[in-house]
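Lecture notes, structural biology module. Today: joint structure prediction for complexes of two components.
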Amino acid sequence: MSRSDSLSVLGLDADDTLWESEARFHEVEARFRDLMAPWSDEEATDAALLATERKNIARHGYGVKGFVLSMIVTAVHLSDGDINANQIGDIVAWGHELLDHPIELLDGVADTVDALSRTHRLLVITKGDLNDQMTKVARSGLANRFWRVEVVAEKDEATYASVLDRLGIQPSDFVMVGNSIRSDVLPVLGIGGRAVHVPHTTTWILEEPDPKAVAAVRFPVLDRLADLPALLADWSVA
Amino acid sequence: MSRSDSLSVLGLDADDTLWESEARFHEVEARFRDLMAPWSDEEATDAALLATERKNIARHGYGVKGFVLSMIVTAVHLSDGDINANQIGDIVAWGHELLDHPIELLDGVADTVDALSRTHRLLVITKGDLNDQMTKVARSGLANRFWRVEVVAEKDEATYASVLDRLGIQPSDFVMVGNSIRSDVLPVLGIGGRAVHVPHTTTWILEEPDPKAVAAVRFPVLDRLADLPALLADWSVA
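The predicted structure, tokenised, for the full assembly:
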């Protein structure tokens, strides 16, 4: 057993917990509203895109490629086939921009992850396109701080239970940290683990949690990831 | 240690090893040639699509969604922006058809996987869209025969080494079975494992192996997965 095997495991979400993601999507959504302006006002465009994403989430999964396909389907529909091919080509190019975008670590993340990697085995659990998520980890400069990286199709109780079981981790020994109450907090509490919420600036509508489920539980909320080491130190003393 | 923990691990590829996949892509490629006919002959269409796929494989990864995005980019380019939006909508719909297509197990697979699951811990290792691959496993009717399912971004030596290391499996104890010499055979032999080739009807150009690397190694080739149990029984006696 190496030294690191004795450290407890800390779960970390990636997008909007370690690095910026949602803001890049919002920029593209703004361009999409402009592109659709000849056929649809902003509110109708947003509603149509969301409806398409919701309808396709089970077959597209999460991530950039599904988002691009949903924008294309929405554009053809809203324009009644009138939008031209080069404009659709632009939508694909926006997706490529998202996939190629440099990683912007959130404030204090580099130092905090560095410190946490000395006290915990860091298990990144993220959903989205497998290829995209793995290249983001590689480009983040943090890869060698992580014990494991798990890209999953959905972050629900069954998935967390399966990941922890596979790695031989008891839920009661596990802490998950992330910006999504729906994906990072509720399912982990649901299987008997602990969870810490570090909100980001915005929450995608499909990530909004059931308010009743939120009201039924208690969990710490931190302003920034940099506040996590102090909280974990408190917990290990308590 | 449960009984199953003592069984050795057998790696199985999924697409075109357990179920039909490539043929569905070929059907869509044929429709794409027809769609492009006003602007491009069949050979030029195939060449342009392949060039787009090759250029984008690192950012798209493998799978249906990247294939759809590559068809769209190719269609806009070949038609010089002339193709209409509804036709591009059709391309997306073909992708949805691929994602929703019922699983067609290859001949003899159901019985063979059933038999193998009693003698081995079955580890499916597949690349492609995470969401798509996981739902295919779920819809295959075989999920409860598999010990683990790993969806990976690329099937190279580093990936196999990492998967086996993570699961505590020695490469010398590991056998991989699949239809792709490039993805299922060469990298496993390269890290000191054993591999069995079960060719399917066709091989995608981006899956064609380096002929020199193939000439340098020896591995068994089986006509069908149903021939595998006999081969493995021979090996365990030898």
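Point to remember: Chain A has ten helices and five strands.
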